[in-house]
């Protein structure tokens, strides 16, 4: 009896409850298959199928990232004007069109046009998807629903990566073209799925709508965006800096890197919903963010030990450090969802969610080079000031969130009322 109850509890924390929460999780898994497939195979596709040099690929992706950074806030305003579901569906259709066009790219200019178009569309679609999840669910259910989505997202990424392995094994131009056309089809299927989700009534617009960039003047909110965004550096640490550290400063075999990626995927699928508890209010989300920051700091103190150990002990230390970072990711992610759901005003949610995402994009601009320089190129001592930085962010985020919560939002009209989906 005890074993069966344990299994039921485990299943409840992986399989979302029936209804809109499950529908959103299924959508996330379907879309993630395409994204996971492309992320795992894109580098080879760009160089092998499109004939681009690594330098051209890097330049194009950097330009696209800059466009995404500049467009997130104004494009987020489109969600407030036209509704999140409409923008979400349109974005998925445009994503499909861009991927379908990839095989016809004839050089760097064509590649740049496609990646910039995808970055622009993704900036709008990401906000719309997030705002729909917030608007469609009661406040007490939002963070849990997002946790189910992330769990499903990782399962979809894993399946996409497996499919990518098959494409890479075939290694023909036809296979690579088929890969991107398959991804285009996945986006179209996702668009049809999203179109069938319950329709939401349009949020009431303020009598005098603020400009799309006015949210940037909301200093308490932007301070939260920056601190929370910097904490998403756990992604950069896990996927970029940790592998580089293993390769250059430890005696662990290269296969450990793949094993740690699998560990990350499995723990997120199994534990993300549990880790989201208590993050459905601004104060609870702030505490989750603080715990996540302190766990990142602890990771920075444990990892350097692997540089002076040998053999099995090194692997044990790496697994322990990686587990700390995964737990930080689980808890901090819940904090991010809670903050982005509880702080923005309903009528300007698209613009505010877009502004909230700026912090993450700033992290992606500075963290890969900065954390690699501190953690890897210093020989190891740089991990200690890095730990101090994350500890300070963790200590600062709770009072900064309290400041933002006590400050009226720009464009706020009345207290939020939960909307009811239209069947």
Overview of the structural elements:
The chain contains 14 helices and no strands. With 423 residues, it is mainly α. The chain folds into two domains: 18-195, MFS general substrate transporter like domains (Growth Hormone, Chain: A); 217-405, MFS general substrate transporter like domains (Growth Hormone, Chain: A, Up-down Bundle), CATH 1.20.1250.20. α4 packs antiparallel against α5 and α9 runs antiparallel to α12. It is globular.
Map the helices and strands.
Blueprint: H1 2-12, H2 20-49, H3 54-82, H4 84-101, H5 108-136, H6 139-170, H7 173-195, H8 219-231, H9 233-249, H10 255-275, H11 282-302, H12 312-342, H13 349-377, H14 383-405
Helix pairs in contact: 2-6, 2-7, 3-4, 3-5, 3-13, 4-5, 4-7, 5-13, 6-10, 6-12, 8-12, 8-13, 8-14, 9-12, 9-13, 10-12, 11-12, 11-14
Gap between N and C termini: 40 Å
Structural class: mainly alpha
**Tally of structural domains:** 2
The whole-angstrom Rg is 21 Å
Going by CATH, the architecture of the largest domain would be Up-down Bundle
Q: Stretches where pLDDT falls below 50 for ≥5 residues?
A: 414-423
SS summary, helix count = 14
The residue-averaged pLDDT reads 87
The helical percent reads over 70%
According to CATH, the homologous superfamily of the largest domain is MFS general substrate transporter like domains
Q: Supply the CATH class of the largest domain.
A: Mainly Alpha
From the spread of the alpha carbons, the general shape counts as globular
Which strand-content bin applies to the residues? under 5%
The H/E string reads HHHHHHHHHHHHHH
**Biggest pleated-sheet summary:** none
Q: What is the number of E strands?
A: 0
- The CATH topology label of the largest domain is Growth Hormone, Chain: A
